[in-house]
Amino acid sequence: MSLAAITRATLAKDLRLEWRSKDAINSMLFFALLVVVVFSFSFDPNAEESRQIAGGLVWVAFLFAAVVALNQTWARELRNQVLDAFRVAPAPANSLFLAKALGNFVFVCVLEALMTPLFVVFYKLRALGPAWQLIPVAVLGTWALVVNGTFFAAMSIRTRRREIMLPLLLFPISIPAILAMVNATTAILTGELSAWFWFVLLATYDVVFTIACLLLFETVLHAE
Amino acid sequence: MKRAFPIFAVLTALLLSYALYEALVAAPTEKTMGDVQRIFYYHVPSAWTAFLLFLINFVASVVYLIRRSHTADIVAVVTAEVGVVFCTVVLVTGPLWARPVWGIWWTWDVRLTSTLVLWLIYVSYLMLRRFSTSSQTPLLAAALAVFGALDVPLVYFSIWIFRSQHPQPVIGGGGSIDPRMLHILLLNWVAFLCFAALICWSRYRLERLRREVEETQALESLLEPRSLR
Question: Which residues have C-beta within 8 Å of that of residue A51, sequence separation ≥ 6?
Answer without folding.
Answer: A125, A128, A186, A189, A190
